[in-house]
Amino acid sequence: MRMKNLNFGCRRSDFLVTSSKDDWFIQCRFYEEGQDKPFTYRRKLNRFKSEKERKAIEKSLLQQMTELLDEKDYNPRTKQFMFQEGQINQYSNIAEALRQTLKNKEFTPEHKMNVELHLGRFLEALTNLDLGYLKIKDIELIHVKQTLESLKLSNYTFNKFKVHLSSLFTDLVDEGYIKVNPCTGIKTKKHIVERKEIFTNEELQQIEKHIKKNYPHFYNFFQIFYLSGCRVPELLGLKKSDINLEKSEFTITLKKGQLYVREKRAIIPNALPFWQDQMENALFDDDYIFSFFYQPGEDIMHRTYVYKFWTKKIMKEIGIDKGIYILKHTFLDKVEEAHYSAQIMAGHRDDRTTSIYTVGREKRRLEAQKQIQIKAF
């Protein structure tokens, strides 16, 4: 009698179909660790009277019984699945395990969306390479690397995929489902870092005049964004209570992957008039200072409104093919050109730069920001 190995140390015999007139059934012997005798897993078809009907049911029932034992880890003796559906274990399918791990991650919505996109493409490629059958315990570096290579990604995107997948595999290692993160041994690919575009002074003057004349409600946002070095979502998340004009400071929430950090930033002297003007219309502490129509209000505005406004009202109308984040790059370039530290103004949290500050060092950074003099347009 031929035996098939199942998960959790179980085995089963081949299925036997008995098709006598009086007794028609499908069965196999189910063996499990800790049990002296095998369990007979049997399903009868006697209630179906005609042979034609029995033949039709026999095929689907055999398929169902095979799937329950071989793929879903069903124990016919206890009539239970050996692990609950949705619970990860070392025998879980690779796709199921990674998706469930991502579901449990506390990422920011934007970051989670990026990881979901990369994971989806990775799993699709894994299936195309006929590797979709792999259990999480069987996944190795070669499987991940071959799958990533098959996607023919740019070096930069390859590295991004690897980082996102590695964060998921790290959790599986922590839970003991796998021993080694298969992404650890995959080398990071070299890529050329292109020099970021910046606006010329003439372009800045043209944009400033266009906004002031045609879209004055956007003017304060334009100047504050340009002179802050912040990201768009960071400004849109600012409430009146986050801003201290007396100290020339504001507090943003940095959202980077899994990291949420509250960090103080300085209002540089050239930007102060725009902050003061914007704050005059903020009535309550919980008001976002840039709500809809770029005016203070109780509702947070999504960053896509800003991007679309810039594309339609600025780029297309003026004829300048540069996105709004070129303002940030331009400001940081001018900060560096004036011999200030662009890294400190931008507030990057990289281990090689400004990573972890002591309290005294953080205060010195903030005071240094307040001394920056960059001309507003």
Core attributes:
377 residues; hpI Integrase, Chain A; 12% strand; DNA polymerase, domain 1; five-stranded antiparallel beta sheet
How is this structure best described in words?
The protein has 377 residues and is an alpha+beta fold. The chain has 3 domains: 3-81, no CATH class; 94-174, DNA polymerase, domain 1, CATH 1.10.150; 201-370, Intergrase catalytic core (hpI Integrase, Chain A). Helices cover 43% and strands 12% of the residues. It has 13 helices and 10 strands. The strands form 3 sheets. Strands 1, 2, 3, 4 and 5 form a 5-stranded antiparallel β-sheet that branches. Strands 8-9-10 form a 3-stranded antiparallel β-sheet. The protein has a two-stranded antiparallel ribbon with strand order 6-7. A hairpin with a 4-residue loop joins strand 3 (16-19) and strand 4 (24-31). Helix 2 (94-104) packs antiparallel against helix 3 and helix 7 packs across helix 9 (272-279). The longest helix has 20 residues, at 51-70. The protein is elongated, with a radius of gyration of 31 Å. Mean pLDDT is 86; it is low at 348-358.
Topology:
Blueprint: E1 3-5, E2 11-13, E3 16-19, E4 24-31, E5 39-44, H1 51-70, E6 74-75, E7 80-81, H2 94-104, H3 109-128, H4 141-150, H5 155-174, H6 201-214, H7 219-226, H8 232-236, E8 243-244, E9 249-256, E10 259-266, H9 272-279, H10 303-318, H11 325-337, H12 342-346, H13 359-370
Antiparallel strand pairs: 1-2, 2-4, 3-4, 4-5, 6-7, 8-9, 9-10
Helix pairs in contact: 2-3, 2-5, 7-9
